[in-house]
Specification:
alpha+beta, globular, about 230 residues, 7-stranded mixed β-sheet
C-alpha cells in the first residue's frame, strides 16, 4: 500500500500537539512486540520538535502518520535515530523508510562527524538501515554513555542485557561511521544476499539467550559469515 500524498518533513513548533498521540503509540507498539524502548514523555517529544531534531509524517489533512527523533550521546560522538513509529493504518506503506531516510539526512547535517547507531529486533528496520549504509556491529562499538543504556530499563529484556555485561541482547546493533563505512549499495546488497541467514540467526540468538538466561537466572561488519558469527559470540 502506497500513500503518495504523505508529507515527511522536519518537525517544528506547530507539531507539538501530536506528542501525546506519538508517545501513546510508541508504548502500544512496544507492548505488542513484547519488547521495550526508552519511555519518553510527551514533553520530551515536544522538546525534540522545538529543537529541530525530529521528523514527522502527516497527511495533507493533518492526520498523523509517523515520527522519529535524534538523540545525542557521548558529547556528540554518537547519535541515535530513536523512537521510529508509524500509525498502524500506515504500516507497510513505505513511509517508515521515508522517515528513516529523512532523519538520517538530518542527523548527518547536524552531526556530520558523529557515528549514527541503532538497536533493533526487526528485520524490516535492519533492511532500511542497510540501505542507508549501516552495518551490524558488536555492542562494544556503541556509545558507553550510561544514560543511553539506562533507557533500556523499560525493556522486558533488560535483565538479559545486564547479565551479559551489556555485550549482547535480543536487539541487533547497527552503526554508520562517517569516517569508515561501506557504500550504501554494498551494505544493501550484503543484506539482501544474507537476509534469510540474518532472520534465522536472530531467531537462534534470541532462543539461545533466553535459554541461557532462564537456566542461569577485530571489528565485525556483517560483510562475511565469519564476521557475523563473531558478532554473536563476542
Amino acid at each position: 500500500m502506497e500513500h503518495q500524498d504523505i508529507i515527511v518533513r522536519v518537525a517544528n513548533h506547530i507539531d507539538t500537539h501530536y506528542a501525546i498521540r506519538i508517545t501513546d503509540e510508541m508504548e502500544a507498539s512496544a507492548m505488542a512486540r513484547g519488547t521495550g524502548i526508552a519511555k519518553r514523555s510527551p514533553e520530551y517529544i515536544a522538546a525534540k520538535m522545538l529543537e529541530g531534531k525530529a521528523v514527522i509524517a502527516l497527511k495533507p489533512s493533518g492526520q498523523w502518520v509517523g515520527f522519529c527523533y535524534i538523540e545525542e550521546w557521548s558529547h556528540g560522538q554518537f547519535v541515535a535515530n530513536s523512537g521510529l513509529i508509524v500509525a498502524p493504518e500506515f504500516r507497510k506503506s513505505g513511509v517508515a523508510k521515508k522517515i528513516k531516510e529523512t532523519i538520517f539526512a538530518l542527523s548527518r547535517e547536524k552531526y556530520p562527524e558523529a557515528k549514527i547507531f541503532g538497536l533493533t529486533t526487526g528485520l524490516a528496520v535492519m533492511k532500511i538501515n542497510s540501505d542507508l549504509g549501516y552495518e551490524p556491529v558488536t555492542y562494544s562499538e556503541l556509545t558507553d554513555d550510561e544514560e543511553f543504556w539506562s533507557g533500556c530499563k523499560s525493556c522486558v529484556n533488560y535483565d538479559i542485557l545486564m547479565s551479559k555485561g551489556r555485550k549482547n541482547c535480543m536487539c541487533t546493533a547497527m552503526l554508520f561511521d562517517p569516517k569508515d563505512h561501506y557504500a550504501p549499495k554494498e551494505t544493501s546488497e550484503n543484506f539482501q544476499e544474507h537476509s534469510k541467514l540474518y532472520e534465522r540467526f536472530n531467531a537462534i540468538k534470541q532462543s539461545k539467550l533466553l535459554k541461557w538466561f532462564y537456566k542461569k537466572e577485530g571489528k565485525p561488519t556483517g560483510h562475511t559469515l565469519k564476521a557475523f558469527f563473531s558478532f554473536f559470540f563476542h
